[in-house]
Amino acid sequence: MPTITNIEDLKRLHRRRAPKMFYDYCESGSWSEQTFRENTSDFDQIRLRQRVAIDMANRSTATQLIGQDVAMPVALAPVGLTGMQNADGEIKAAKAAEKFGVPYCLSTMSICSIEDVAANTSKPFWMQVYTLKDDDFMRGLFDRAKAANCSAAVITVDLQLLGQRHKDLKNGLSAPPKLTPKSIANMATKVPWGLEMLQTKRRFFGNIVGHAKGVNDPASLTTWTAESFDQSLNWDRIREFRKMWNGPLIIKGILDPRDAIEACNVGADAIVVSNHGGRQLDGALSSIRALEPIMDAVGDKIEVHLDSGIRSGQDVLKAVAMGAKGAWIGRAYIYGLGAMGEAGVTKALEVIHKELDTSMALCGHRDVNTVDRDILMVPKNFSGDWS
Ligand SMILES: Cc1cc2nc3c(=O)[nH]c(=O)nc-3n(C[C@H](O)[C@H](O)[C@H](O)COP(=O)(O)O)c2cc1C
């Protein structure tokens, strides 16, 4: 077993162990991938302020996200096709999150279903929903999340249509993978992945096949997906979803202060400042740059979380210092899952926790809840002086 010291190590192993089609699906942004790149490079522009001779014994990273106790201000973001990176991937990731004491958010486009994850975990998880036209399917999804005891619904609002990711088109991405000479040749080099995949029944979109009208096989799913995303979505429709779900509600995919205000007005409990990991509007601001203007607009009215670009505990610390109550990770835990299954997700969480804890201490804080903007050195005009 190689010595893993950072998220980059897990990424290298993920690349080696998962089929190219699925690694590429994870490691891509839309079009030129500018936003995808800047999500991480913008974090690097922010520096941390070292303090010394401050008592750093007895530290704590524990806090609350939407009123729920967490071991650190981190949540596992919803990631479609997680169960293709490693067999039963959603269950493995949810188990690792639950043992670590951080929330796991299941994607609508997961391979393991809501019911599968609920049956294999003991703590409530969060359920992400895409905004689809089919009212019956949407009601059904919220009802199923309620029946599974989900402790929050997360409505993703930045995907009314899909940003193009070139690699997915070139690789012919599908779940389960289409068998072509190229995909077979590649999968033949991923033997442990293939053996585990053969041992599970979960190889389709578990929340959709058999639940959406007329979708009983993967072929009809392709048509369904293309036709179902609601391009006419507006805030009134999101108000209807609010009525379908009376538990804690998080709105994910906000980058503009005006949209953050709308999210407050529909009665959300939290928002996630996110550009979908650079997978939707290429050319959009990185999330960390978009955060401060949003904090100024709604920071005292609603809990603000952030994702996109977090690859270390230092990134979590920077997001928290800028005002985010929580930082969600997507690729960072998927690398771990693709590398080593549940143990890899645990490793990703351990790496991030250690980096967060140590960096927080070296900035002179013992409690993550006291961390503030004072620990940061941010380039002037970081949020941008755009016209
Ligand atoms: C492979 C992949 C699939 C994703 N699928 C979903 C999804 O099904 N629903 C959703 O709301 N967000 C989805 N996202 C976005 C993540 O929830 C999150 O916003 C993003 O990964 C954060 O950026 P990071 O990967 O740089 O941490 C996906 C991201 C990736 C990388």
UniProtKB/TrEMBL annotation:
Keyword Oxidoreductase: yes
SUPFAM superfamilies noted in UniProt: FMN-linked oxidoreductases
Lineage start: Bacteria, Pseudomonadati, Pseudomonadota, Alphaproteobacteria, Rhodobacterales
Family under the similarity heading: Belongs to the FMN-dependent alpha-hydroxy acid dehydrogenase family.
CC per GO annotation: plasma membrane
Keyword Manganese part of the UniProt annotation: no
GO MF entries: FMN binding; L-lactate dehydrogenase (cytochrome) activity
Active site: H276 (proton acceptor)
Enzyme class name: oxidoreductase
EC number of this enzyme: 1.1.2.3
Top-level taxon of the source organism: Bacteria
Binding site for glyoxylate: Y25, R165, H276, R279
Residues annotated for FMN binding in this entry: 78-80, 107, 128, 130, 156, 252, 274, 307-311, 330-331
Residues annotated as domain FMN hydroxy acid dehydrogenase: 1-381
NCBIfam families given in the database record: PRK11197.1
Protein name: L-lactate dehydrogenase (Cytochrome)
Cofactor: FMN
